[in-house]
Automatic annotation (TrEMBL):
GO terms for molecular function: metal ion binding. Residues 2-66 form the HMA domain. Keywords: Metal-binding. This is Heavy-metal-associated domain-containing protein. Pfam families: HMA. InterPro entries: Heavy-metal-associated_CS, HMA_dom. It comes from the Bacteria.
């Protein structure tokens, strides 16, 4: 299992965190997602998850990986 932290721009509230969590959790291989609105980060744990898949999921939620 791998663990990667991404900096995400534009998140300001619990709704933002929920949207990012929902989209990233739907990526195949993702085991868990932890979003910190305060820090502007998303911690993703999983197997076989690429950076591009996470970037695409964050983009679909309406935010961007810095």
């Amino acid at each position: 299992m791998t663990e990667n932290t991404y900096t995400v721009t534009g998140m300001t509230c619990a709704h933002c965190a929920a949207a990012v969590t929902e989209e990233v959790s739907a990526v195949s291989g993702v085991e868990s997602v932890e979003v910190s609105v305060e820090a502007g980060t998303v911690l993703v744990r999983g197997v076989g998850v690429s950076d591009e898949q996470v970037r695409t999921a964050v983009d679909e939620a309406g935010y961007a990986v810095a």
